[in-house]
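[job 0412] stage=complex_fold ligand=NAP status=START
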Amino acid sequence: MSGTLEGDVAIVTGGSRGIGRATAVAFLEAGARVMIVSRKQEVLERVAAEIGCEWFAADVGDRAAAEACIDATCSRLGRIDILVNNAAASPHYGPLMELDQRSAERIAQVDQWAPVMWAQLAWHAAMREHGGRIVNIASIGSTLVQPGLAYYNSAKAALIHLTRQLAAELGPDVRVNCVSPGLVRTDLARPLWEARGDEIAAALPLRRLGQPEDIAAAILFLVSDAASWITGQTLVVDGGGSLGSALGQVSDRPQPPG
Ligand SMILES: NC(=O)c1ccc[n+]([C@@H]2O[C@H](COP(=O)([O-])OP(=O)(O)OC[C@H]3O[C@@H](n4cnc5c(N)ncnc54)[C@H](OP(=O)(O)O)[C@@H]3O)[C@@H](O)[C@H]2O)c1
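[job 0412] stage=complex_fold status=DONE, emitting structure tokens
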């Protein structure tokens, strides 16, 4: 995809590590100029120097900080063509009966409202003038009833619906899509893959967990011209996990003849 984003300016929230950092690298390799956003300034400075991009320290749920980042992107890079709403919060793990209001409000603020707020700001500041592409990052958990992550998963389900709504409202000049990852080896999911990574990978049709680059490749496709007739869609990137566990059983696999 080298050169496919030449001339584009992209904002990647949560761009200092994991899926966001891999996405920023993929965009830079495709020729875009990139603004990465996260909360820790010292990490941002180091990463931006390593990969060669701009940085802005902001909590994505903070409207004043988001506005300042949009302004800084326009003044430093001249335009905004691409927004990747990737940062997420998951402050609670446990049954709904133990979810406290503060955690619930934080999940709703960061995982559900912030992507809409950043889309509003990017649209008003730039995309309304010249079009653009927005990609929201959901989770395969949005389709599951799971112990522990119910409210986070419900915010991700809402984000998939909001992606469809935004696509309808912002077409034809702005395309809005979503990527729904399965389990990826990042800090966010570390407790899960450190404890059960081999077992989970063995049950996947593709027999491995995701790497941040697997998700970045899907995001790059959705913002590229190769996806110019795709909007409002959610691309599941999960090693085939959502096909169902029966398909992932080693004992059920067809064996090669001989
Ligand atoms: N990893 C998986 O298995 C998996 C599966 C499904 C979906 N996802 C989704 O993929 C996306 C990326 O996750 P990841 O696994 O790459 O996570 P990660 O490695 O933990 O990275 C999260 C990034 O977001 C930033 N961030 C967190 N909260 C923020 C906030 N309130 N404001 C601004 N930046 C914030 C972090 O930096 P600071 O902490 O310095 O702010 C970091 O740059 C998320 O939307 C997540 O829900 C991940």
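Residues 13-14, 16-20, 37-40, 43, 59-61, 86-89, 110, 137, 139, 181, 183-184, 186-189 surround NAP (CB under 6 Å).
[job 0412] exit 0
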